[in-house]
Amino acid sequence: MLYTIIKENTYQDSIVLMLLSNKLSAMDGVNKVSIMMGTPANKDIFKSSGLGTDELENANPNDIVVVVDTDQEDKVSEVEAEIEAELKGNSAAQDESKAQEAHNWKKAMELANNPNLALISIPGQYAAMEAENALNEGLHAFIFSDNVSKEDEVKLKQKAHEKGLLVMGPDCGTGIIHGLPLAFTNIVKEGDIGVVGASGTGIQEVTTIIDRYGKGVTNAIGTGGRDLSTEVGAITVLDSIKALNQDPKVNVITVISKPPAEEVQQKVLNVLRNIEKPVVTLFLGDKPAYQEENIYHAYTLEEAAVVSVQLSNGEKPNFEPKIVENVNVALKDSQVGIKGYYSGGTLASEAAMLLKDAFKDEVPAEKKEAYILKTKHHEIIDLGDDIYTQGKPHPMIDPEKRIEMLETSGNDPETAVIMIDNVIGYGSHDDMANELAPTIKRVLEKAHQDGRELAVLATVVGTEQDPQGYDKQIATLKESGAIICETNDQMVRTAISLVGGKVEQPVLDVQNFEHTKEDLSVDEKIMSLINSNPSVINIGLKSFTEAVKESGSECVQFNWRPMAGGDEKLMKVLQFLNYYEGDTSNGLQNN
Amino acid sequence: MILEASAIGSIALELLIEGKKFTVHSIFEKGWNIIDCNGELIFLGTDENGTFPFGILLDQQTKQTVRAGITAGDTFIVRNHRLSHSRFDIQFDHAKMLPLNMDFEHANINKLKENMQQISFESYESTDFELARVSELIHKLQDSSENVEADFRYFIGRGQGLTPTGDDILVGILYGHFIHPFIAPNHLETLANLIKEPLTTTVSQRFLTCAIKGLFSSKITKLQYDSSLESMKSLIKVGSSSGKDTLYGICMTLKKE
Fold first, then answer.
1. A2-98 adopts what CATH topology?
2. Per-residue pLDDT averaged across A402-424, rounded?
3. Confidence (pLDDT) at A585
4. Closest-CA residue to A531 (of A190, A177, A245)
5. One fold for both A2-98 and A337-498?
């Protein structure tokens, strides 16, 4: 008996069709089978080989036609299932990836293909526990979550170090691991500059500048802001530096952080002094007092990026600060204020640092709440600070607060310059420039009507590969009347120059320091993390899974929910039992 | 995400008119096809099977990224020199043009003939495309007074695969014609008209319409510049039998004298 199966408008590689044909022919109970596209010539073949059926006439050239000769009717559904499975081929792979979701560690580990990295973004109070689970499973951890206690961070990082693993974070907003952007990150070209950073937007600014200079960063290891505290002791920073040192593809190592505790800074510098590769450090907030033979101490993010590029090119470091020249703004004598409204915390800190440097006399000793810097005339605000984000999305996603600040400061007759950043990349607003542009235009027009001129400076942190497109964001802002600055450094220096100030770039001598010998070896697992495509288990925000997959890496989504109804005490007991004596094979699993 | 195309074929570029909508037609290991409302098809993917005049060349990484995120039926719209999908933009204004490779006079026919002798086409004897049948078609094609419509109808759309064997052989015969012209113009016209009929798959139609105009995949045109056995072997590797079928058509054409 002949049975006809027509798969309308279905296409497959010839190879897939041939394999399918072989498979079906070999099935028990199938006397004869033929698979062809439903062209008129092929219908003739079906007929001449004794496989002609009435249904064949309904087939079109773009349909896959299967005619089966079998005496067992139930074979047809079996054949059909086989066809279905085989033809799905590519789409089946997609379905499979959609099914890659787990609700517990056991399932997640089963589904994942040799996982080596856990990306954790669940609420802070549970994040440490799951990070520990990840370490127990032999995975490196990237903890995006904040609100993890310092004690937990120390415990996790010590455990990781003992196991030869890396804990990035907590509160790690940015990272690039073997070219894979994690969390809020830009798409940066791969290259020979290795970055270790304890600051999210600091990494973003440095890596994107490097990218725009035509060089690349394959690994930018985020460590979390507290890694260089006395308690944590730079465990992750040191392991990361050693890993980049061992990696033959890295030619320049760039370390970015806020000024660490003194003893920690010395510890980090001692390791760096053991390294032969050229190193760039930036302890943002400190004005470097000396240079070293093999370690370039940068003052600003742009300087760190530019010098890294120069060293990667085998050139001598030579950084000349730039400002945007010929800004055509006529300010009145009463217009003296610089106002910076930032979405990137590190960028705001950099602005405050440069302003303090330029206007030493008028900087108050104490920090005022909600301001990174507030002087008589100037103010720098980090709108990503908790005080502004409570109950609201981050300013990289939500333009509302910035629009409000732009309006207010624009109306202030004392304001001379307004500075804004636009951090693009994964996790940021789809088109922030378009959200801010109408307000910039309005603020400028309004000032003009009031008989004033105003400079709105803007900088975009991103690359052309980013989803929002660097050039597109710049074009939109430019059209609104904003003056575009290539970097935050240039934006702040331009602002300072517009109100008659100047930041002196330090001119430094090279000094030599004694150092104690340091063991620079690093565990193979860390080397493997930075040298191969990570296979990720994502615990928390589903959008991270999509971003990882979009970048071409494997990712299993772990839809986490708290055990024991979220009772932390009980959860900790279960946690202890699960990994009692490190035995995971018989332990209770997080179900 | 904005991705870059590495290179683009002239036919593909002609089709990428601002605002035009394309639908994902079929997805394969090495790339995918998109199709416009007139049934015109563009291939996007890597050059593992060669490059095509109706193709947009992508590097491995880009192909993989996009391929993992699209399904058949998805829409691409041409916007600002980009093929824009809801999740990706493929930028093509910086892509270099793929060469047309229409300098058929470079072909070293004697060398090609010589090397082809080392490839056996005997297995075709037991198929619908035995040597005598293909020879007869080639013979008839030289004579403008012959009626070849029935022969074409036999070949077009016949055989296994997304590009049925008969079509691949015809592409080979057409290539043979371009390196050493022999087909009477009226027969080319007949073929051009038949291809417009629903006789074969959309993908195969695309290859044939290009071939009639002298546009072939780079795996085929390589033979003009390099008549070595290696070039032939690399053509044979295309598809399950497509490459070999094409080479069979070329070989039979060159052997006709």
1. Alpha-Beta Plaits (3.30.70)
2. 96
3. 37
4. A177
5. no
